Amino acid sequence: MNWDDTTRGAPSAPGTPAASDTEDRLVGSLADGEDQAVEAALRPKDLDEFIGQEKVREQLDLVLRAARARGATADHVLLSGAPGLGKTTLSMIIAAEMAAPIRITSGPAIQHAGDLAAILSSLQEGEVLFLDEIHRMSRPAEEMLYMAMEDFRVDVIVGKGPGATAIPLDLPPFTLVGATTRAGLLPPPLRDRFGFTAHMEFYEPTELERVIRRSAHLLDVHIEAEGAAEIAGRSRGTPRIANRLLRRVRDYAQVKADGVITREVAAAALGVYEVDTRGLDRLDRAVLEALLKLFGGGPVGLSTLSVAVGEERETVEEVAEPFLVREGLLARTPRGRIATPAAWAHLGLTPPPAAGAGPGGSGQQHLFGT
Ligand SMILES: Nc1ncnc2c1ncn2[C@@H]1O[C@H](COP(=O)(O)OP(=O)(O)OP(=O)(O)O)[C@@H](O)[C@H]1O
């Protein structure tokens, strides 16, 4: 495997999660330094080991088997889905299943067409090129990629201005695996050049339980089924978060218990880290509590809500809200943010009369801020 060392740590750009999602959040979905160090050991190595995503697995299995039977390089693959759902892992599995080497890089690392030409021209026949955050590649690089994907050829421009010449360069057949959190951000000409496109969904708690039990086994941690279920329920549908919570619970079990992760140990450990039964952390709960306790469940404007929580508007909007919306706890409406009945129930509070009717609900006449 060949890691392109410019891959990580590139500046963020529009379309990427807010910086605070990467910083000291146990339930953040982006990889932190510790995740990167242990993830390699926890990655499933083949499709059989890969848990969940049944449809994607079945379809990919067919694509790869057929290519192997033809003795051909596999079609280009586009994987879309939230961070931490297994896109990098699947790209490595594709390479392993095709017995091919893999090169890993990312869109932000390729700012010039020349960067891409250098990578493409050094690929071996059949190699898998994993391009993470493909939607963040520069325009000239993207255009070079069109021809490379379709004709296995690039035009290298030598010189500048009227004297510039395009020198065609043949490439060995390769498989591009592109990953993106937002397939909708890809220009159609790029999207259309992928032979197989898969969207990865958030995982069911039962699938995350299997991820956690498998990881516990690899980390040599003793975990009971109920302990795994407790962690799975708080993992926000994301294997990366499940594995991270498992490591924190393991620490707690080692220091405060006899090393075994039971339901009680998992619940107590995650209580210490302020990750609640649905996977909400301190920030998520602060937003919900302000919405319910200060504004009667809304509607309330984002700016007002952010001031009440003491956070930047962007942090509330980009870090806390997406998960609250996904969980059906908060709704964004043209009149402002509204808590749903599930939010009142989750915080154990009683909605005021005529409140808590959810999006489009009646009786909520007050509008705080904008
Ligand atoms: N289906 C799965 N079964 C078991 N473990 C998984 C699965 N999917 C992901 N994981 C684990 O979750 C962690 C994160 O996965 P991975 O790095 O592949 O996510 P990603 O989607 O590429 O994230 P990013 O977009 O941030 O790069 C890895 O440690 C991997 O082992």
From TrEMBL:
Q: Where does DNA bind?
A: R313, R332, R337
Instruction: State its location(s).
Output: Cytoplasm
Q: Which domain of life is it from?
A: Bacteria
Q: Where is this region: Disordered?
A: 1-25, 351-370
Its main localization is cytoplasm
Tell me which residues bind Mg(2+).
T88
Q: Which Gene3D superfamilies match?
A: 1.10.8.60, P-loop containing nucleotide triphosphate hydrolases, Winged helix-like DNA-binding domain superfamily/Winged helix DNA-binding domain
Span list, region Large ATPase domain (RuvB-L): 23-203
Cellular component (GO) terms are: cytoplasm; Holliday junction resolvase complex
Record: residues binding ATP: L42, R43, G84, K87, T88, T89, E150, D151, F152, R193, Y203, R240
Briefly state the protein's biological role.
The RuvA-RuvB-RuvC complex processes Holliday junction (HJ) DNA during genetic recombination and DNA repair, while the RuvA-RuvB complex plays an important role in the rescue of blocked DNA replication forks via replication fork reversal (RFR). RuvA specifically binds to HJ cruciform DNA, conferring on it an open structure. The RuvB hexamer acts as an ATP-dependent pump, pulling dsDNA into and through the RuvAB complex. RuvB forms 2 homohexamers on either side of HJ DNA bound by 1 or 2 RuvA tetramers; 4 subunits per hexamer contact DNA at a time.
The UniProt comment on domains reads:
Has 3 domains, the large (RuvB-L) and small ATPase (RuvB-S) domains and the C-terminal head (RuvB-H) domain. The head domain binds DNA, while the ATPase domains jointly bind ATP, ADP or are empty depending on the state of the subunit in the translocation cycle. During a single DNA translocation step the structure of each domain remains the same, but their relative positions change.
**Name of protein:** Holliday junction branch migration complex subunit RuvB
Gene name of the record: ruvB
